[in-house]
């Protein structure tokens, strides 16, 4: 089954470390097929760039939620998981 035939319409998707690299590419694919992506990372500029790209390719131009957090920090981890 081709990825493009799968829909993630109205599904919230959180990929940790998704502001750059493989995580960003995953978010772009999910956004392209209708997923409501959350961009996570430690660098606000990279997060904004990825969020903008996701918004541009999302079928409904959904603006992604951005979460700045370091997953090695206990308080950040608790904040993201709640």
Task: Write the SSE topology.
Blueprint: E1 12-15, H1 21-32, E2 36-41, H2 44-57, E3 65-68, H3 74-81
Parallel strand pairs: 1-2, 2-3
How many discrete domains?
A: 1
Main beta-sheet strand count, sense and barrel state: 3 strands, parallel
> Globular, elongated, flat, extended or rod-shaped: what is the shape?
globular
Classification by helices and strands: alpha/beta
How large is the radius of gyration? 12 Å
- Compressed to H and E, one letter per element, the order equals EHEHEH
CATH superfamily name?
A: NAD(P)-binding Rossmann-like Domain
Number of strands: 3
CATH architecture: 3-Layer(aba) Sandwich
Distance from N terminus to C terminus (CA atoms, Å) equals 34 Å
Question: Strand arrangement, largest sheet?
Answer: 1-2-3
Low-confidence stretches: none
**Helix percentage range:** 40-55%
Number of helical elements: 3
Rounded mean pLDDT score: 91
What is the fold named in CATH at topology level?
Answer: Rossmann fold
CATH class reads: Alpha Beta
User: What fraction strand?
Assistant: 15-25%
